[in-house]
Amino acid sequence: MNTLLNTISKRRLYNRTVREISSLPVDVALDLGIYKGDAHALAARAVYGE
Fold first, then answer.
1. Which of 1, 19, 31, 40 is the most exposed, having the fewest neighbouring CB atoms within 10 Å of its CB?
2. For the whole model, what pTM was predicted?
């Protein structure tokens, strides 16, 4: 049961991270060195360590 809850929790965090990166203003993203098109890859790395 803990594994399922952990998986769900990570997926929710992944989705939230993608939304937050995608919604960054362009100038802020550029200042941070983030290309918004990489939101999924960045979120995966942040949440799953990939």
1. 1
2. 0.87
What's the half-sphere exposure (Cβ side, CA atoms, 13 Å) at 50? 9
* Residues spanned by the domain of 26: 2-48
> What is the tens place of the pLDDT at every residue in 3-45?
999 999 999 999 999 999 999 999 999 999 999 999 999 999 9
Question: d(Cα 28, Cα 42) in Å, to the nearest integer?
Answer: 16
Between CA 47 and CA 26 the distance in angstroms is 23
Q: 18 near 40, Cβ under 8 Å?
A: yes
- DSSP characters for 2-32? HHHHHHHHHHHHHHHHHHHHHTS-HHHHHHH
